[in-house]
Design brief:
Residues 1-24 form the signal peptide. It comes from Candidatus Manganitrophus noduliformans. This protein has helices at 2-23, 152-160, and strands at 41-47, 61-68, 75-82, 88-95, 104-110, 128-134, 164-170, 178-181, 183-186. It is of the alpha+beta class and 190 residues long. It has a single domain (41-186), classed as Immunoglobulin-like (Sandwich), CATH 2.60.40. It is globular.
């Protein structure tokens, strides 16, 4: 019985091997399959105090949602936060993996006096939602980590590699009160 089953399996394998070229793509007269068009990529992050480095005990929470357009030239974003224990004075996306701190890539909002706040930014609300669009003009670095100002593709690659986080800073917790690592997902058929 065992021997018959072995011969049967070998015979089936030989038949399948002979018919494999019929099913292979290389013999298709239509040429290679069409390239998939680029698709938008969704981004999200949940913000809280525990992901901060070091962790912060806070009542604050937040949510970041964004979409990288199919051409990878813009990121439309929305940042919401509430119940923070301190007045918010700046918020941005940093270049860094979980459990590490990194330099700033782009700004959401900022209030003077910190000298690092770029001119012309909207003021950070005490709570609520702010929205906008990032382009290459908004990428400021961090040059010390290999991302020069204006390098939008590097910014996008950092996000898609899981090496970017949203950080919201308050007067009570200046290094950051709430933080969330950015996750990505592709839209459309796989």
């Amino acid at each position: 019985m065992k021997k018959s089953l072995t011969y049967l399996l070998i015979g089936a394998a030989l038949i399948l091997l002979q018919t494999a070229p019929v099913f292979s793509h290389e013999d298709n007269d239509d040429g290679p399959p069409p390239a998939r068009p680029p698709r938008p990529i969704g981004l999200s992050a949940r913000l809280g105090g525990l992901p901060e480095v070091p962790s912060v005990s806070t009542t604050g929470s937040g949510r970041f949602k964004a979409t990288i357009n199919a051409d990878r030239t813009e990121v439309d974003w929305s940042l919401s936060y509430d119940n923070t224990e301190g007045e918010i004075f700046m918020a941005h996306i940093h270049f860094g993996q979980q459990h590490t701190n990194g330099g700033i890539m782009v700004w959401f909002c900022g209030d003077a006096p910190p000298p690092s706040v770029p001119a012309g930014l909207p003021l950070c609300p005490l709570s609520g939602t702010i929205e906008g669009t990032f382009t290459a003009m908004d990428v400021i670095g961090p040059a010390g980590q290999g991302i020069a100002a204006g390098e939008f593709e590097e910014f996008v690659n950092a996000i898609l590699s899981g090496a970017a986080y949203v950080n919201v800073h308050s007067l009570k917790h200046p290094p950051g009160e709430i933080r969330g690592q950015i996750d990505s997902r592709r839209f459309g058929p796989r």
